Amino acid sequence: MAPRSVPAGNRGHECEALAIEFGDGGKTERIEVTAGEVDWSEPSDRPHRAVNIGKQAYEEITVFFLDRPDAVPQPSDEPA
């Protein structure tokens, strides 16, 4: 997950950001975000969480495209 550039219309304005923390203890990544941003993220095998390090609260909506009706959208690493 590479940091994204700030859209031209938002340069000069304070950006909000997320810290991506990895469960394996890897280096935390900072990702700048803007209100109304839409993005596509490829799945990752590394467990992680996003921590809001900006000043504004935000909501994230995640959409999973499943290949069959019984598919699990977010499988767990823990044994069943």
Structure characterization notes:
Helix content is 0%, strand content 21%. By secondary structure, it is mainly β. It has one domain. The chain has a three-stranded antiparallel sheet, with no helix packed on it. A hairpin with a 6-residue loop joins strand 1 (16-22) and strand 2 (29-33). Mean pLDDT is 78; it is low at 1-12.
The overall pLDDT, averaged over residues, is 78
| Low-pLDDT sequence parts | 1-12
Domains counted in the coordinates: how many? 1
**Biggest sheet, in brief?**
3 strands, antiparallel
Q: What gyration radius follows from the Cα positions, in whole Å? A: 15 Å
Share of helical residues: under 10%
In DSSP terms (H or I, runs of 4 or more residues), the helix count works out at 0
Portion in beta strands: 15-25%
Give the termini separation: 29 Å
Note the overall shape. Answer: globular
Can you tag this structure with a few keywords?
21% strand; 3 strands; globular; mainly beta; 80 residues; three-stranded antiparallel sheet; single chain; disordered N terminus
How are the SSEs placed, and which strands pair?
Blueprint: E1 16-22, E2 29-33, E3 48-52
Antiparallel strand pairs: 1-2, 1-3
Describe, in short, the structure shown:
The protein contains no helices and three strands. The chain is mainly β.
